[in-house]
Design a protein that fits this description.
Elements (H helix, E strand, L loop, with lengths): L17 E6 L20 E8 L2 E3 L12 E6 L1
Antiparallel strand pairs: 1-4, 2-3, 2-4
C-alpha cells in the first residue's frame, strides 16, 4: 500500500535538488485553478499529485482539488 516516488538528476555532482510535499487546504487560492495558472517559480515542478489514494501525473490542464498532495521537485 506504500507509494514510492522516484526521481533522479544527472550524474553531475554540481546539481542539487529536493522533493517536497504540499497539501492543498480548503482555503487555498489555488483551488479550482489549472496548473498552468499557478506560478511556482522557475526551478520548481509538480511531478506527481496524490489524490484520493491515487497517483495523478499532472499536466497544465490538471485542476487543483482540495486535499491534493503535490510532490514538488526543486533544483
Amino acid at each position: 500500500g506504500d507509494v514510492m516516488v522516484l526521481s533522479a538528476f544527472s550524474l553531475d555532482d554540481d546539481i542539487e535538488g529536493s522533493l517536497t510535499e504540499m497539501t492543498i487546504e480548503k482555503d487555498s487560492t489555488w483551488l479550482g485553478k489549472s496548473l498552468a495558472e499557478i506560478k511556482l517559480g522557475h526551478e520548481k515542478l509538480i511531478v506527481v499529485i496524490k489524490r484520493n489514494n491515487q497517483i495523478v501525473i499532472p499536466n497544465g490542464k490538471t485542476v487543483v482539488k482540495e486535499n491534493d498532495v503535490f510532490v514538488i521537485s526543486q533544483l
